[in-house]
Amino acid sequence: MWSNLPFDLLANIFSFLSPDSLACAKSSCRHWHQCARYLATPESQRRHPPWFIALPNRSRGLFCCAYNPIDDSNSSSSWYMLPLDFLPIPTRPVSATAGLVLLRSTSTTPFQLAICNPFTRQFRHLPTLNVTRINPAVGVIELDPGHQFGELNFRAYVAGGMSEAPGGGALYEPKVEMYDSRCDTWKVIGSMPVEFAVRLTVWTPSESVYSNGILYWMTSARAYSVMGFEIATNSWRELSVPVADRLEFAALVQRNGKLTLLGGKCGGDACIWELGEGDVWRMIEKVPFELGMRFLGGKGCWDSTKCVGNNGIVCLYKDLGSGMLVWREVVDEGRWEWFWIDGCCSIRGQQLQNFQIKGLLLHPNLAHSSLLNA
User: Fold this and answer.
1) Is the peptide bond before 223 cis (omega within 30 degrees of 0)?
2) Quick one: pLDDT at residue 110?
3) Angle CA 356–359–363, to nearest 5
4) Cα 372 to the chain's mean position, in Å?
5) Which of 366, 367, 337, 364 lies closest to 48, judged by CA?
6) Alpha-carbon distances of 185 from 38, 96, 156, 188, rounded to whole Å
7) Can you tell me the distance from the alpha carbon of 83 to that of 72, in angstroms, rounded to the nearest whole number?
């Protein structure tokens, strides 16, 4: 009976499965495989929490590890190894969007972006930018799903960087370019003050947060500050950061649609602030002392801390083998709670060497993307 269910009914059933269960269903028979491949799309997977994807800073010839949050046992069985040998070039992860991972090439001097799906092993270069540049800041926005098999779409913004000057040498590039996955092209959409281009090039990591129509970047130069690009007006602004001169690390995430800032002080607490009306920061939470000391190994130094988050979860991490602090929304109870996730030291009995990672939150997409087949 199960093998003869109508396609639409079976797809509706599959839409309630978690990614790991869907993968098992996909391998059962040809009919289930076709249904899971084309109709069980990322938008249906959003019923489940995102997976934490631990990607090496430089990925060629290595692998990434994926943590499945559905399994609350907090054991090595919650981690999976995903080979990255399908990547044809050396890359560095930038961000996750639309069930895909945005990458930047490290094998070419001009800036080049690519996308991949580590679960379906698909990879593709994005088109070349209109302005050749190196080391710009990148911002990503996920758009509404498309109509073809629930395809998800996104826009990528590139600002700053160094470009070749007309008379030789180099200059800071003030043009802002935008890539739209629906038309698969880059276009110049505006410009920025040169002093902002300098700061985005030299002191801003390649990651961003989108909230209420504005892309935000955290500068990496102490004292920290936040730079924002309002997309509708192509205008730029700068925000201050609470106790900016005392923070050892600072990072931005989006939480419940609002811009949220995490920062840790030397020998002190790690705090969480939320941006309110009038661009005023309001402290809403502190990392529990015991969990903070466990995360820091008793050293009291937040310097190497990294952060990733979305609306329902915030993760503090360092490297693959160290444990991770998670602040997660408990939807049924209307509150947020802290808990600990052990680092990934082995998978299915195979011991792993520790390495530096970039953590991404991703809803696994087991459907083959038409964008990656373009």
Assistant:
1) yes
2) 86
3) 150
4) 18
5) 364
6) 25, 19, 10, 10
7) 24
What are 197's two structure tokens? 């281009």
pLDDT at residue 107, rounded to an integer:
80
Contact 195, 141 (CB under 8 A): no
Which tokens is 253 given? 């995430």
SS3 at position 339? strand
What is the value of pTM for the model shown?
0.86
The pLDDT, as a whole number, for residue 40 is 47
pLDDT of residue 259: 95
Contact criterion met (CB below 8 Å) for 352 and 82: no
Domains and CATH numbers, the chain: 41-362 (2.120.10.80)
Q: Tell me: the pLDDT tens digits for 165-195? A: 887 788 999 999 999 999 999 999 999 999 9
61 class by beta-carbon count within 10 Å (0-12 exposed, 13-18 middle, 19+ buried):
exposed
Name the DSSP class of 319: B
DSSP SS3 for 366? coil
For 271, phi then psi, to 5°, come to: -120, 160
The number of helix segments (H) and strand segments (E) in the chain equals 6, 28
- Give the DSSP H/E element, type plus range, for residue 210: strand 209-211
| pLDDT for res 37 | 61
What pLDDT is attached to residue 147? 44
Structure tokens that stand for 247 in this block: 């923070």
pLDDT at residue 165 in the model: 84
Orientation of helix 19-26 relative to helix 30-39, angle to 10°: 140
> What does the angle CA 184 – CA 373 – CA 161 come to, to the nearest 5 degrees?
40
Do residues 89 and 109 make contact, with C-beta atoms less than 8 angstroms apart? no
* Neighbour count for residue 10 (Cβ, 10 Å): 21
- Reading the block at residue 340, the tokens are 């600990």
- The stretches in the chain having pLDDT less than 50 are 40, 147-149
DSSP state of 349: T
How many CA atoms lie within 13 Å of 209's alpha carbon, on the beta-carbon side?
A: 27
- Using an 8 Å Cβ cutoff, are 361 and 96 in contact? yes
Helix axes 30-39, 7-14, angle to 10 degrees: 70
Structure tokens at 94: 């930038």
Catalogue the long-range contacts made by 29-35 (C-beta closer than 8 Å, 24 or more residues apart): 29/3, 31/3, 32/3, 35/7, 35/10, 35/11
